[in-house]
Design brief:
Layout: E1 16-21, H1 31-48, E2 52-55, H2 69-78, E3 84-91, H3 97-110, E4 115-120, H4 127-132, H5 143-153, E5 175-179, H6 182-191, E6 195-197, H7 206-216, E7 228-236, H8 240-258, H9 282-289, E8 293-296, H10 298-312, E9 316-320, H11 326-339
Length: 348
């Protein structure tokens, strides 16, 4: 399915906006400060009307403080009251399904009706760190079976069941399948689960994956019809020039990934200065990875996001904004909420 043919009728007439955060550790900061900033962001997102706040699982990355994802999510959930809190995602092959069921069963027990469990099969790190985590290279091959096992542990226990998740059993924590290829789309369709595509950094298979998910979807107790989410990067400011400058922090981060020189999130530079940093081919590769990045003033960004939603037919957008300055990051999310007339929950 080509991108030009990607226009699809959305299954949900009301577009939801959510946030994928990395608890980014900026230069001059530390993990504790990054996690406290993430909680403050979630509190503001709740007030502005965002649907959910997810944290990512990555390991051995100096700029990301959410490696212990379930622990971090407990800190976020404790500081909020209505916004959904979840993983974007837990890399299930790094863990046993039982341990994840217990961890997220605990979260659901403490914060009922607010916990999401997004699942991915990538390691979230490099091969050396995989070995340090005692992860087997073949672990991802059993991902479908592990998802099924995890799902069963959230069901009410059967008489005489020898292994039970406590807390966890009977709680039916909502599961999501995350992916950047047809594999995850097909699995989500087969299991009747909502699907989130990582188009904020791996956009190439977006339209084919959404088509496969919708065409093959089998209804389940959790979802009667397909529900698709797409990740995008959004950096907004009062002017296009300011937003483009803010976006250079994310560009520098991806440049570091390509060079295997990951560091803390760097402060922005003038957007024109990036042309002095690229080596041959790096700018094109970074632009390809960050294809679905919407950068600019509200007047610039709104029609582009609206076109993306019309083309993909997604029910929800998961927003990532790797902005160095906390005030500028919060301002970007507030502008986006105003742009799409999000409504704060009653009593907030």
């Amino acid at each position: 399915m080509t991108e030009a043919a990607g226009t699809a009728e959305r299954t949900n007439p009301k577009l939801a906006l959510s946030v994928l955060d990395h608890a980014s550790i900026v230069e001059g900061s530390n993990p504790g400060e990054a996690l406290r900033d993430a909680r403050e962001l979630a509190q503001n997102l709740e007030r502005w009307g965002y649907t959910r706040f997810w944290l990512s699982e990555h390991h051995n990355m100096r700029a990301i403080a959410s490696a212990a994802t379930s622990v971090s999510l407990g800190f976020i959930a404790e500081g909020t009251s209505t916004i959904r809190v979840g993983s974007g995602g837990v890399m299930l092959p790094n863990h046993s399904p039982l341990v994840i069921a217990e961890q997220f069963g605990t979260l659901e027990s403490l914060y009922p009706g607010r916990i999401d469990l997004g699942l991915g099969r990538a390691p979230g790190t490099d091969p050396r760190t995989m070995r340090a985590m005692r992860r087997d290279n073949s672990a991802s091959s059993t991902f479908p079976q592990d998802v099924q096992e995890l799902r069963s542990l959230f069901e009410p226990a059967s008489p005489g069941q020898p292994v039970r998740a406590v807390p966890g059993e009977g709680l039916r924590v909502p599961l999501w399948i995350l992916g950047s290829s047809l594999f995850g789309a097909q699995l989500a369709a087969h299991l009747g689960l909502p699907y989130a595509f990582a188009s904020h950094f791996a956009p190439s298979a977006l339209y084919d994956a959404l088509a496969a998910y919708r065409e093959d979807f089998t209804p389940s107790e959790q979802a009667a019809k397909p529900y698709a989410m797409a990740g995008i990067n959004v950096v907004m400011a009062d002017t296009d020039a300011e937003a483009k400058n803010l976006f250079t922090s994310q560009q520098q981060a991806f440049l570091g990934i390509m060079r295997n020189a990951r560091g803390l999130l760097a402060p922005p530079v003038e957007s024109s200065a990036m042309d002095t940093m690229w080596r041959p081919g790096e700018k094109q590769q970074t632009e390809a990875m960050l294809r679905y990045s919407f950068v600019g003033s509200p007047e610039t960004v709104k029609p582009k996001i609206e076109q993306f939603v019309a083309d993909t037919g997604v029910d929800e957008l998961m927003i990532s904004s790797m902005i160095y300055d906390k005030k500028a990051r919060f301002r970007s999310y507030e502008l986006l909420a105003d742009l799409f007339d999000l409504e704060a929950p009653a009593g907030s």
